[in-house]
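To whoever is on call:

I kicked off a structure prediction for a single chain this morning and the downstream step that reads the tokens threw a length-mismatch warning. I double-checked the sequence; it's 294 residues and nothing unusual in it as far as I can see. Pasting both halves so you can look.
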Amino acid sequence: MDADDQVCSRRAGWANGMASDAASRRLYGNKRLSHESKSLMSPSSRIMSFAEYARIRHAIPYVVDIARGGSRLVLFGVRHTTDPADPIFDQIEAAFLSVSPALALHEGTPPAVESDREIAIRRHGESGLVRHLAARATIETASMDIPLAEEAGLLLDAIAPGDALVFLVVRQLASYNRKTAPPDFDAYFGDFFGLIAPALGIQIDWPLTEREHLRLLGRPLAAPKVTAFETDPLGDDLPTQRIARVSNRLRDEYMLQRLVAALDQHARVFATVGVSHAVMIEPALAAIGESARC
């Protein structure tokens, strides 16, 4: 997403509803994910829609501070980066120390705990820093995100396995290409394919992925050139962007459940997440909390 240091702005097409939830319905017809049949009064129904998100401007970082039953949750929304020179990492650390959490949560698959702060950031971004800080503070950490295999299975309620494969791979390629100290490519994606293949019910290799990418997106896969644009849920140019809206909704609902459970079980919780998730989840957190500020 395009953003300056202070404010995240929406492209004009988004503001006109170009990337609304209706686009996902056009792509996937009348299929519905079973877990979305929620009561209108449930907290998950308060999660912001993409049409609503497209109309707002917000600060980066975006901080949500929630109190509930004597416990406190600070959700720190950031723009993803692995550049140790980015000031966001000092801001994350300062917020972490201010909260003095009993539990720290992060987005994505739990990365290895790195003893060196810079290596943690270069290899894993904000989740790496959170794991590093938590290890130093001797507190527990956990992912608040849907496990990859579970997400892959849930996507099949809405899309074909080949489409889900392309979406998941290009999203992972964008994450890999963003790293300033990337791991071995073949080992990294070998592990990744092993996680999602059983859920998708297919044997995954690069030739299959390249064929499916060409079919779905109409162009060859150029792995080193993939960026977050291909899975930007606020775009409407690519099928993978429309799939991203389905995925993000699944993830936001899962994250909300994890955050509420953590708030109920721990006195102080600190969590980092991509900024759009923090903004979109905030109304639901405010509905269950005693206060909120950002």
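Update from on-call: the warning came from a stale cache, not from the record. Cleared it. Sanity check on the structure: The radius of gyration is 19 Å.
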